[in-house]
Amino acid sequence: MTANFVSSLSNALPSDLKRSRMPAHVAVIMDGNGRWAKQRGLPRIMGHRKGVDTLKKLLRCCRDWGVEALTAYAFSTENWGRPTGEVDFLMTLFERVLRKELREMMAEDVRIQFVGDLTALPETLQQEIDRAVQETQDNQGICFSVATNYGGRQEILQACRAIAQQAKSGQLQPEDINEELFSRHLYTANISDPDLLIRTSGEMRISNFLLWQLAYAEFYITDTLWPDFDTDEFHQAMKAFQARDRRFGKVDETEGE
Ligand code: IPE
Ligand code: IPE
Ligand code: MG
């Protein structure tokens, strides 16, 4: 058996999951890196480093199982409030990982994009981002969005400013503003709203992530810390998702009367 054959087997969709019921877009709040490190008596940054491996495995698994888009929360607008050493480490880590993984993303047909205000990021990181986005732009395997310096409120405000500017210059009328137009001014304009939000490490909050887009997402919250989140746990999340009854505010057809 060749190594390739083995790996293609291990990446097949588990038989208890239905391909037709896979979420098209999964969003994930990768939380718990610091606690993972602390439990082991390690500095927090070791948790972030291990967290990268988890993300790589999840991205591959999503692609193999037919998820069309994965959005990962890497750095929030509030995370600037952390100690300078941790922030600097994270920025350097993002840059290094992008540079190192670009070839593999091409091989695996991943299209990477970034959501958030990128102008505040270090110049060298912005350059790596531009390069990765451009090189992968025609890939079709999966759309991988990395939320970096992302805040849901900031995103909504920048959309409001852009729309107000167009109204002021007469390009549109206030009554033209609807959900569809508003969505087109968000960083996520080219992807559907997430069907599923996963948050690791047990926190029951949204922490300013995709405030508009998560309106009807299903939530899966696990106590597992991000560095320990593996394919088995993702499998559990998919099973839970496929068992959900998504009503979108309506009633089930059979209960219609
Ligand atoms: C998530 O892990 C990673 C980032 C926010 C960058 P944390 O660093 O928040 O880990 P905990 O929540 O302190 O354990
Ligand atoms: C959310 O995690 C942000 C990211 C995962 C990047 P945080 O650890 O920053 O969120 P809070 O502080 O627990 O709400
Ligand atoms: Mg945290």
3D architecture notes:
Its cofactor is Mg(2+). One of its GO terms (biological process) is polyprenol biosynthetic process. It is an enzyme of class 2 (transferase). Keywords: Magnesium, Metal-binding, Transferase. The structure is a single chain. The chain has 257 residues and is α/β, with parallel strands linked by helices. The chain has a domain at 22-151 and 192-240: 3-Layer(aba) Sandwich (Undecaprenyl pyrophosphate synthetase), CATH 3.40.1180. Helices cover 42% and strands 14% of the residues. It has helices spanning 3-10, 33-39, 44-64, 84-107, 123-136, 152-168, 179-184, 231-242; strands at residues 25-29, 69-76, 110-115, 142-150, 196-199, 218-221. Helix 5 (123-136) links the parallel strand 3 and strand 4 (142-150). Bound molecules: 3-methylbut-3-enyl trihydrogen diphosphate (2 copies) and magnesium ion (MG). One 3-methylbut-3-enyl trihydrogen diphosphate is lined by residues 29-31, 73-76, 79, 203, 205, 207.
Summary keywords:
257 residues, alpha/beta, Undecaprenyl pyrophosphate synthetase, six-stranded parallel β-sheet, binds 3-methylbut-3-enyl trihydrogen diphosphate, binds magnesium ion
